[in-house]
Amino acid sequence: MLHAPLPFSFKPPLMRIAHLPGSLFSSFTGIRFHAAPKSLPAFVSFSSSSMADSNNFLAVSAEDVAKFGFTREEMYSSNLAGTVNPYDRHLFLRHKSYTDWASRVEEDLLPKHLSSALKSRKNDIPSKTLLTVIEGEQSDGDVLIFPEMIKYKGLTDSDVDGFVEDVLVNGKPWTSGVQETFTGSYVFVCAHGNRDKRCGVCGPILIEKLNEEIALRGLKDQVFVSACSHIGGHKYAGNLIIFSPDSEGKIMGHWYGYVTPDDVPELLDQHIAKGEIIERLWRGQMGASNEGGDKTGEQKLPNGEEVKKNEKHEESTAQKTKENVGGCCQGVNGFTCCMNASPEVSESKKIEETTESRGKTGPGRLTCWFQSWEQLDVLTAAAVVGAVATIAVAYSYYRRSG
User: In which residue ranges is the amino acid composition biased (Basic and acidic residues) (predicted)?
Assistant: First the structure.
């Protein structure tokens, strides 16, 4: 709320949101985030100090918060599980501040060169690798590699080809850099506002909430948060990825969508602290491979429950709606649904399904077919007898009246 009258007029108030650590963010900008009940998302209040003009802030109007934030209409409208394509390794390149990223940050010189090298050598790189840009500022050019949990500092444009050859193709330490290992849990939040407003509105709020809750738990030296560029699925904002060890110590990268500030404590206390997945927000994970055939449309939750890749709303609606039409349609994920206009065929299909549900196969199913036709014959014969009887009665009445 505005704590004092402003000496100037404006139409929609502007929030200036930046990623600053912990309480420094609130004291510098005047923006405070208040936890809301589970039924409602967190809301934002701001003071006149948040109106300070700075190129390092991302301006978001109150109208945009309502339209693109946690109360937007599309929230929770799609299934999340299976919306991440399988991959094996994730590279994060530190590059500038996220408020300075262009819409296509991958077209900046260093990200572009690294991305091009990954594409040109993809057949030589044994592990399917993703590249995402994260905020860098004082550490531009640093590369973090998951699940190996290794880091190289100061990658430059001229180093890219040698780095890809040594580290990604041959699986050896980079000859031009020093390999470092790191530990802890890492949370990457999409805050790429110049690419999509939903991420631009939701991301910075989640980053601030994460840092606040991490500080309250005394985890600043164990859990680290960074803004990241587009990771796919703007409509699922807030989007984030958590890299942390599972119960066996294996580093896993889990993707979450539709995350709100209210979900942050649960992510810290359940996912990071206990290794338990928040299934209602879970999109997928790093390490789901295609072994044994093409399974890009399928993934498994950590508890073993199989899920299928999210389908378009129109397709799922069409599958749920039973229409009496002819022909066949090819569905998603290789699923074929055929519908026929003939009521006899539909009836026969129902009989078959009933037979199958009772565990009958072979002769039993054939018996059902004969039974259905015998019933039809009996009904037809009855109709014929009734017609003959009617004609006989009518003829008899005609003779008597004549």
Answer: 292-321
